[in-house]
Amino acid sequence: MDVDVRAINEKIEVESAFVDLLTNEMNKVIVGQKDMIERLLIGLLGNGHILLEGVPGLAKTLAINTLSKAVQGSFSRVQFTPDLLPADVVGTMIYNVKDNDFSIKKGPIFANFVLADEINRAPAKVQSALLEAMQERQITIGDETFKLDEPFLVMATQNPVEQEGTYPLPEAQVDRFMLKTVIDYPKLHDEQLIMRQSLHNSFGKVNPVISLEQIVKARESVNEVYMDEKIEKYILDIIFATRYPENYNLSKLKPLISFGSSPRGSIALAKAAKCYAFIKRRGYVIPEDVRAMAHDVLRHRIGITYEAEAENMSSIDIINAIINEVQVP
């Protein structure tokens, strides 16, 4: 098996070379948000979607727009508002008087990169219009079904600041996102740079550095990243500890968790760990990759009880407790 892993490792090292190119290109415009850029690439390579949470003004919209320019993809932005209708997202049938017939007008969802801005501002029926696209990669308008272009990445943003007129995303919908990333403020020296560049309008111009075909090819390479059975077992132990903490010396967590992660969580964690290894230009997954991705993959997949809220315990605290307890291979 050893030779095999070495061969995969050499192949991945060559094929992941574009990651640095892409990161450097995005860094021309996005200053200091290293984690956000990394998570976007993992979503792109893992064929998943990303939910970004952060206060306004942290370059969430700019990040996905920059990514779409760097990979020559089409980009569309949908501003979610309380009066938005599903047809505004997916498209609708329009009556054409001249031809005395209906024609289909496609909505903004037909793009490689779709930014669902402030997704929690629109009611459930609009949020669910997005779900068929996210899960099945297709859209149904009238009696016709359209396949969406590959790659297809939805990046939704939501505001953590408690405001009037938001509709929290139901658990089943949040579960469709591969990662939920919480973005923090930039560091002081980064913000100084952002301020200077904005005042002098001196942001670099983003050039296309990779094609959509290369992204689709890179996804196949990600699947080839070697994952040992011990690592698979480690991932499953982490997931099962969210469901049955008492089996992992974590009985104290039992009253704090209302529900654990679904199998979608174990698939997403395995996929994200492979993508993380790929980005780090490695052809095999190590426990560190799993630990690095566990928070973003699981923070929205663990339900916490009122008791946990009373004790000021968040899903992140629960994940930390599980990661510290579950045996590392």
Automatic annotation (TrEMBL):
Q: Report which superkingdom the organism of origin falls in.
A: Bacteria
What protein does this entry describe?
MoxR-like ATPase
* Record-stated family: Belongs to the MoxR family.
InterPro entries, A to Z: ATPase_AAA-3, CbbQ/NirQ/NorQ/GpvN, ChlI/MoxR_AAA_lid, P-loop_NTPase
Q: Which UniProt keywords apply?
A: ATP-binding, Nucleotide-binding
**Residue ranges annotated for the ATPase AAA-3 domain, each copy included:** 49-179
Report the GO molecular function annotations.
ATP binding; ATP hydrolysis activity
Where's the ChlI/MoxR AAA lid domain? 255-321
